[in-house]
Structure formats: structure tokens, C-alpha cells
Amino acid sequence: MRVMTGLLLLAWLATGWTAPKIETWHTANGAKVLYVHTPDLPMVDIEVTFDAGSARDGKAWGLAAITNALLDAGTKGHDENAIAEGFNALGAQFGTSADRDMASLTLRTLARQPIMDEAVALFTEVLSQPAFPEGPFVRVKRNTLTALKEEEMKPSTLAARAFWKALYGDHPYAHPVSGLPETVKGLQLEQVRAFYKRYYVAKNGLISIVGAVDRKQAEALAERIMGALPAGKKAAPLPAPKPLDKAVDIEKPFQSTQTYYYLGQLGIKRGDADYYALFLGNHLLGGAGFGSLLMEEVREKRGLVYSVYSYFLPLKQPGPWLVSLSTKNATAYEADKVVRQTLKAFMQHIDPDKLQAIKDNLLGGWPLRFDSNAKILGYINMIGFYDLPLDYLERFPREIERLTADDVLAAWRRHIHPDRLVKVMVGGFKASKAQ
Predict the structure, then answer these.
(1) DSSP 8-state symbol, 58
(2) How many whole angstroms separate alpha carbon 100 and alpha carbon 409?
(3) What b-and-e string marks burial along 173-201, b requiring 16 or more CB atoms within 10 Å of the CB?
(4) Is residue 5 within 8 Å of 359, Cβ to Cβ?
(5) DSSP string over 87-118
(6) Cα–Cα dist 34/218, whole Å
(7) What angle do CA 123, 222, 107 make, to 5 degrees?
(8) Residues 295, 289 contacting (CB under 8 angstroms)
(9) Which run of H or of E encompasses 343?
(10) Which range is least confidently modeled, 10-24, 158-172, 363-377?
């Protein structure tokens, strides 16, 4: 019953639950700041993010990932061992990561002085003064090539690569974040330095701060960290990918006991008004584990897979919506058939009772999504990077609560086109096609 979801919202309010209060401003040199005060633990979590993901590689695929990985490989004042030992001695945690849209550096440290001051000083040095020494560059490049060559022996990786390539063509999202062996092999250190100089600048960046520091302290932290960077300029908008006008089937034989399968199309970008309805519908279709229709039809009723799932991946530009599974070679075509039948039935009629159960499950666990600084940091970094409204965390459950089965169905029919899907299968399915 829809009333149950409303009661869940009332129950949160009765227990005093509120969404984290997000504050925002800009540093003097133009960096965006998002901040949440969480005084219960004497910790502070910081993430600095740039519009510097692999979509900015140009033809030098893998450049963004290697640049990000080399940030802590040495500065003018410390080599990579001294940097690692410095964070360890302070009990601080440092990390870097890169995906298609963004590249980030993270720091977790005690909020107690002088520990926080020393950790922030080292973090700021790594961010603003990377030396990009030759030795670590050669090593990281070699390790990347080794990993990429190993991935070429994995049918799951080949399937993922083929899916993104078929879906995005010559768009900057098409290639793997880590690049390909032939592109990584040609990367030069000067390209790394130029990439850093162009994209790791304040106006192209965001700093998110969560922890036991007050607003005044957070302002000082943001100015200290981002103020060490040149202002620069924001990266140019990415082009919009072109939707497919017909179905695409890709089947690649591979010597393996399993067939790896992707089915999908372009989805939406972050901030799309239909996201709530699409997200809720996907949770019912394939995003809720054993509560999803795909798991029920493909695994529980027929035993074709161990796991099957679907998801939307909204990005700066429309990211994919996809279904993924692996199955025995002999059942690959049957699994494809059942997935398509389940999607077709879902888009013809959504059971209001099943949708309500999914809503109750989603909203019942909503407060648990913010039970640590790290989780809050992840959400506010997403909100800041994709320019979502500051009340997103409050708005989300209310938007989910008001949706009906008709609302969800209408959104799916606007965006998902079962006759124009990309299907990729990689494995030993060929021998079993006639069965």
C-alpha cells in the first residue's frame, strides 16, 4: 500500500532523522566547496575532484588514469616513499581514483591538531606540486600495460569493452578508462605534465569536506588546499552521444566455460527529471537483488545464472543503462531470451504491489546511506560535481514516495527502446546455439 511509504517518512521524522545539512561556497580562486559538519567523531574526510576523467584523454587513451595515479609518486620536497610514510606516520589515509568523468584525491585524518595540519600540508603538496618523476612513470606505465594485457584474457573485460564501444562509437566515453595497450604504450611523460597543468586547476575542481570541523575551519581548509592551485579554467562541455537507431548484436567466441552478456542502450545524464522514476523502476527490474524481476525470472525460476542485475549509470552526458550476467555456454541464448521477455513484460505492466514493496525497501534503508562520513562524502561529491540541488538527499525519498506505477512506466517508455538495444556476448556460446 502507498500509505506504508508515507508512514516510513513520518517514522524517520519521529526519530529525529534529517538529511545531512550541505553548505556550499567558492574559494577565492574559483573552486567549488561542499561541506557537512559531523561532530560525533574526531575525524575529517576530504575529497578533491576534477573534471579530468578519461573522457578528457583525447586520442591518448589512458592518460587521465596514469596522471591521477602518479600524483603521489613524488613532489619537489618528498619522494613517493616519503609521501607514503608521511601519511602512515600520521595515521592518515590517502587515495586517488579516476573514472570516465572525474579524477579525485581523498584524505581521511584525525581532526586533532597538529595531526590534521600536517596531513593537510602533505595532501596539499601532493595535489599542487607533483614532480612526475621519470622512474615512477615508467613503472606505472609498465604495470598498466601488464594489467591491460591480462584483461585481454578475461571474457568479462572483453564484453564490457565491446559494449561501451558499440554504444558510444567515437564518443569520449567509448574507450576504457585505463586505455588500451597500443595507446598506453605511446604515452609520454610530457603529456602527463600537460594534462595535469590543464585540468588540475581550481575552476575545474571541487573540494568536499565532511567531519568534525566547523564552517570557519572548513573555509580555511578549502582555501589552503585549493588556493595552492592556479585558477585555470573549467573544462569544455563534453559532446552528447548519439543514440542508436537500430539494434546491435555482437557475438565474440572465446575459450571459456561461461558466456558473459551485456544488453543495454544510452540512459540519461545526471540531473534528468526522470531519474527518480527510472531508478525506482530499475530497482524493481534488476537492481534489488533477490527482490528484482530479472533475478526471479532468470535465476530462481530457471536456474540460468548465479547473478543478474541492471543499472543506470548517469554521467555528465547520458551514461548507459544495461543488464549484465554470466551463464553457462549452453544456456546463453536462453538467458538472452528470458531477459528480453522480462523487460518486455515489465514495460507493458508494472505490478503496483511489487513496486510498493520495492519502494518500502528503498526508503526503509535510506537513512543507512548516510551512517558514515565516507558515505556522506560520496554523496556530496556527486551533488557538487554534477551540480545537483543541495536538497537532493531530502528530495530523493520524497520523489520516490510520490511515484506511481504509471509514472514509472511512462518514464521507461520515454527512455528505453527494446528494439534498439546493444547486445554483447563473449564466451563459448557458438557451439551450443543450435541446442
Answers:
(1) T
(2) 30
(3) bbbbbbbbbebbeebeeebbbebbeebbb
(4) yes
(5) HHHTT-EEEEEE-SS-EEEEEEEESSTTHHHH
(6) 9
(7) 35
(8) yes
(9) helix 332-348
(10) 10-24
Mean pLDDT value across residues 342-353: 97
DSSP 204: G
pLDDT for 39-70, tens place per residue? 999 999 999 999 999 999 999 999 999 999 99
* CA 390 centroid distance within chain: 19
For 252, the 3-state DSSP assignment is strand
Alpha carbons 411 and 273: distance in angstroms, whole number? 10
pLDDT bracket for residue 403 (50, 70, 90) = very high
Q: What are phi and psi of 161, to 5 degrees?
A: -60, -45
Buried b (16+ CB within 10 A) or exposed e, 147-172: ebeebeeebbbbbbbbbbbbbbeebb
Task: Extract the runs of DSSP E, i.e. beta strands, from 116-194.
Answer: none
> Mean pLDDT lowest for which of 153-167, 200-214, 357-371, 387-401?
357-371
258 CB neighbour count, 10 Å cutoff: 21
Mean pLDDT, residues 28-37: 98
Relative to beta strand 258-266, strand 422-427 is antiparallel
How large is the angle between the packed helices 392-402 and 2-14, nearest 10 degrees? 150
Which residues, 6 or more positions from 177, have their beta carbon under 8 angstroms from its beta carbon? Answer: 53, 54, 62, 64, 65, 98, 99, 100
Task: Report which of 235, 282, 215 is spatially closest to residue 385, judged by C-alpha positions.
Answer: 235
Indicate left, alpha or beta for 252 from its phi (over 0: left) and psi (-120 to 50: alpha).
beta
